[in-house]
User: Which sequence fits this backbone?
């Protein structure tokens, strides 16, 4: 391994914060990472990291060196992307961050692209939490709702239609809400901070708009967990209908008050700002957009 490769390895050590985390990301052993770090330090005659049993920290020289190493890696990645742009052929590793519930759609949407381009690799990071696109080297992120960070480039993909859902078992036990006024008296499962009130707007058949506020009994940052709890009969939750299409079709969940509509949620394709998007990103966005708009509960 030459010095340039070791510099790229050191950039990953600095980003990951530990030798073991860097090793996992690079898919090599921790001992191999430690050995290459030692060779790098001996080659330059400078201590780059302070080691202890519990943590690793950069020396002043190591911190300055890490910044240059990161810049070197970024320049190399831009050079590789420019070659891909010139060829207009998707190639290299495509890293996508997306909510857990969308993984079931995104994976099949990219199967034809992967079949056509043997040099394209795919890494899906499915997590309902937000990740830093730069730190995690994400090429494309799927984000739902309002876009607040103007430092990214956001392209609209589709609209996700929402509904209030509950399991037949819960409705048998707690009763079916017949009006909006019935909703606050039910058990709610929601993506909100503990103890906070969930408010949502609904549009009625005559064009009237109403705001309903409920206090959830169960809150989580994971929508998939709430769907599972809802199907188990623990309460009502606001669902992305595409996420629960199978449960609705099989009768495990029901949509409540269907005459009242929730505003659909915009889904975005989010990318870092670049002078030009790599072919792998452009082709992936097109494939995902086309596939999603063909699914039930999703529209342009």
Assistant:
């Amino acid at each position: 391994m030459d010095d340039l490769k070791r510099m790229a390895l050191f950039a990953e050590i600095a980003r990951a914060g530990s030798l073991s985390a860097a090793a996992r990301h690079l898919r090599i052993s921790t001992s191999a990472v430690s050995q290459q770090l030692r060779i790098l330090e001996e080659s330059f005659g400078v201590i780059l990291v302070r080691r202890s049993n519990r943590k690793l920290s950069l020396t002043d020289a190591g911190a300055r060196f890490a910044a240059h190493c990161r810049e070197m890696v970024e320049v190399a990645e831009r050079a590789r992307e420019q070659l891909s742009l010139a060829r207009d052929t998707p190639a290299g590793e495509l890293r996508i961050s997306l909510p857990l519930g969308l993984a079931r759609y995104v994976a099949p949407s990219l199967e034809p692209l992967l079949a056509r381009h043997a040099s394209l690799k795919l890494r899906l990071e499915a997590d309902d939490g937000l990740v830093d696109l730069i730190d995690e080297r994400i090429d494309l992120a799927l984000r739902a709702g309002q876009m607040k960070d103007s430092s990214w480039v956001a392209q609209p993909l589709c609209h996700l239609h929402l509904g209030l859902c509950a399991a037949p078992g819960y409705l048998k036990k707690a009763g079916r809400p017949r009006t909006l006024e019935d909703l606050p008296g039910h058990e709610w499962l929601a993506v909100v901070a503990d103890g906070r009130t969930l408010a949502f707007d609904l549009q009625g058949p005559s064009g009237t708009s109403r705001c309903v506020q409920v206090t959830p009994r169960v809150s989580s940052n994971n929508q998939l967990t709430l769907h599972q709890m809802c199907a188990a009969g623990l309460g009502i939750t606001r669902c992305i209908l595409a996420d629960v299409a199978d449960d609705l079709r099989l009768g495990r969940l029901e949509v409540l008050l269907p005459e009242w509509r929730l505003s659909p949620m915009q889904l975005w394709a989010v990318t870092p700002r670049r002078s030009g998007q790599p072919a792998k990103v452009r082709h992936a966005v097109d494939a995902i957009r086309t596939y999603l708009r063909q699914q039930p509960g999703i529209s342009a």
Summary: The longest helix spans residues 60-87. The two ends are 49 Å apart (CA to CA). The chain is about 40% helix and 25% strand.
